[in-house]
Structures are given as C-alpha cells and as structure tokens.
Specification:
elongated; mainly alpha; single chain
C-alpha cells in the first residue's frame, strides 16, 4: 500500500507562495517586504534651502498677512469714518473717565448711575469751558474790535513807512482785486458754505453718537469685555485676556498723561497772557488746551492764534513776548512733561511717535494723527504683555528641565558629605 508523505500527490493542496506566511508547507514565517516610499519632492527642496532663508521667508509671509489685515481694516474704517471716529473718540474718553466710574461703583453707586454721572461731568466741564470762552469774547468784543482796527491801521502805517515801502494805493489795489475775485467766485463760495453746513451737521451727529457710546461703554463695559472674551478660543484665553487688559491699562495711562500735559500747556499759556494784561487769557488757555491733543499742528495753531490776539490787542512787543511764552511752554512739554508723564505711562520712543503720527495723518488726516498714539499705546501694551508671558513660559520650562538635575546634584552632595562623616 502506497502511503504518500505530507501533501505529495494531493492536487487540492494550496500552492505555496514565497510571500505567504507559510512557505513550502513547512510552517516557517517569512517577513513581508514592501518597496521603500520615495522621498517627497517638497521636503527635498525645503531641506536643501538654508535655514536663514526659510526663516526670512516665513517672516515675510507673516508680515504680508499682517499688512493685508491692516490695509483691509483701514479701508473699512475709511469707508465708515463717520461711525468709526465717534466710536474711537468715545473709547478714549471712556479711558479718561474710567477711574471716576470705578471710584463711584466701588462706593456702592449703580453702574448706570455712575456712567450717567461721568457723562454729565464731561458735558459740564467741556461745555462750561466753551461757554466761558464765548462769554469772555462777547464781553470784550467791542474793545477787541476797536483794538483790532487800531492795530490794522498801525500795520498799514508800518507797511507804508517801514522798510517794505508798500504804499496805500498798492494795498487798495490789492483789496479791490481780492473783492473782485470773491465776487466772481460766488457759486464756489456758496457750495463751500453748503459743504461747511453739512460738515457741521455731521459733526453734531458724531458728537451725539460719541456721548451715547461713552454712556454704554461706562455702563456695560464689563459685559462687552466678557462677551469678547467668550469669542476667543478656550486654549487662547490665558494669553489673550491678560494681553487685552495690559493694552487697555496702557491706553488709560496714556490718556491720563495726555490730559495732564494738555492742561499744563493751557495753564502756562493762559498765565502768560494774563501777566501780559490780556483780557482774553481764558480763551487763549482753553484754545491751547484743546489744540494740545492735535499732534504737530495743534501747537502751531494755538500759538499762532494766541500771538495774533495779543498783537491785535496789546501791540507787537507783547506779541513777541507771548511767542516766547509759547516756545517755553512747548519746550517744557517736550523735554520735561512728556518724559516724566508720557514716558512713564507708555514707554514709546519719540521716533516711533513721529512715524505713527505721520502714518495716521496720511491715512486719515487730522483724526488719524490724533488717534495714532493712543492706538500705538494699545498695541504696545498688548505686545509687551504677550512677550512677557512668552518669556515667563520659557523660564518656567527651563526651570522644570533643570529641576531634576539640580535635585540629583543636591542628593549627590549630601551622599558625599555623609560618606566623609562616616
């Protein structure tokens, strides 16, 4: 009887394959071999580039993205300037009134009543200041007009007899030419007056919007901040919230310092005019205080108007003295007040301030120049808080990494001391 061994002669037996787990029916496992994956072309290209070039390219992409974001925001803000400017002005005034609101709320005043008191305080202070100026100008209007006419006649006499030798006939011809030019430009002047009226209406509308925004910012500021915080992803709140608080604190400090500097400028100019004997010293003080918030142009406008008022009422000698007073006040602001107050509140380099004002005025005119520095203060506060958090995180990680090594060294030192003692 023929007995076959294994699977010999069995046609139904499966054929062994060299890649199968069992080869030749012997039950020996064979490892699977797969072809190696080809190296990625992109990885090869990026790996061949220098590291510095890759870092520079990443920085360039990030800066382009930030530039596009800033450009888009500025474009939208320019289209909605009639809304953005009053709201941002309300934001700054809220920062100035925030300490008073916190004081009232801390002493048990409801938030809505504290906001209303702050708003009434702002309206009374600003409105009372302008009312006082208007009353003073109205009171001395007759004397001012008389002295202005007398000063103009003295100017004409000096032009005729002075080194310029401009005769009365020449000045009369120039005035006649100016009158005829104005007569021919009647339609343009009418359109200009209409545009001024429209601008005044828009200004009043913006003032009303600003007052409402101030009230609601003071009343519901905590609710707004909580709502904005909820929009931030949970994993980023521990970074975004302290940075936003630091930026707000930086802007509040800047606004306080700016108000203090403007008040010192106004008081200095007003005292100078009072010492010189001007009856309009309150008007000069208020004008200097208001225009001190307008960078670069504000000081020139306030000083020019003040010197012209003194020239028309008190003569050219006292006008020169008043010019010297303005120079002293501005130099004191630049070299004393700003380093002591603004420098401590927000440490921004003067070159950064100048560039920021220039960019703001190019983008949005005078409002852009006014709002440029507070916006920069906000951004600087946020950036510094973020960098401080990053430095603190890196330092804590280094301490955690070095902790086991330090513990091992201490134990080794203690073991050596015990060994020496024994």
């Amino acid at each position: 009887m023929d007995v076959s061994l294994g699977h010999q002669g069995n046609d139904n037996a499966p054929e062994s394959h060299p890649l199968s787990p069992v080869a030749g029916g012997l039950g020996e496992p064979v490892a699977k071999t797969e072809p190696a994956a080809p190296e990625s072309t992109a990885a090869a290209v990026f790996g061949a580039l220098p590291r510095g070039l890759l870092i520079a390219a990443l920085w360039a992409v990030c800066l382009l993205a930030l530039g596009a974001l800033v450009w888009g925001i500025s474009l939208v803000a320019g289209r909605l300037g009639e809304v953005v400017i009053p709201v941002f002005a309300a934001f700054l005034l809220t920062a100035a009134l925030q300490p008073l609101r916190d004081f009232l709320v801390g002493h048990g005043t409801p938030s809505w009543l504290a906001a209303l008191i702050c708003l009434v305080f702002l309206v009374v202070v600003v409105g009372g200041l302008f009312t006082l100026v208007a009353m003073q100008i109205t009171t001395y209007w007759g004397e001012l007009s008389t002295q202005t006419v007398a000063g103009f006649q003295q100017l004409i006499t000096w032009l005729d007899r002075g080194p310029l030798h401009i005769s009365y006939d020449q000045m009369t011809a120039w005035l006649n030419s100016l009158t005829s030019f104005l007569n021919t430009q009647g339609s343009n002047i009418a359109s200009l007056v209409a545009s001024i009226g429209t601008s005044i209406f828009k200004f009043l509308t913006g003032v009303i919007m600003c007052l409402f925004a101030i009230f609601f910012f003071l009343k519901d500021g905590d609710r707004f901040s909580h709502s904005l915080r909820r929009l931030v992803p949970t994993g980023m709140r521990h970074v975004v919230s302290p940075a936003a608080s630091a930026g707000w604190a930086s802007m509040v400090a800047y606004v306080r310092a700016a108000v203090t500097v403007a008040a010192c400028d106004g008081v200095g100019a007003g005292l100078g005019a009072l010492i010189l004997g001007s009856n309009l010293w309150v008007a000069i003080m208020a004008l200097t205080f208001v225009f001190a918030f307008v960078p670069m142009l504000g000081a020139l406008i306030a000083g020019g108007v003040g010197c012209i008022v003194i020239l028309a009422t008190l003569g050219w000698v006292k006008a020169l003295i008043m010019l010297g007073v303005f120079v002293v006040v501005l130099e004191t602001e630049v070299h004393v007040m700003q380093p002591l107050l603004l420098g401590r509140a927000v440490d921004i380099h003067p070159l950064v301030v100048l560039i920021s004002i220039a960019i703001g005025m190019i983008v949005a005119g005078i409002p852009g120049g006014v709002f440029a520095i507070p916006l920069v203060a906000l951004i600087v506060g946020v950036a510094r808080s973020t960098m401080d958090q990053a430095d603190g995180t890196a330092a804590s990680q280094m301490n955690e990494t070095a902790a086991p090594v330090t513990l091992f060294r201490r134990r080794r030192t203690l073991f050596r001391r015990q060994k020496v003692q024994h």
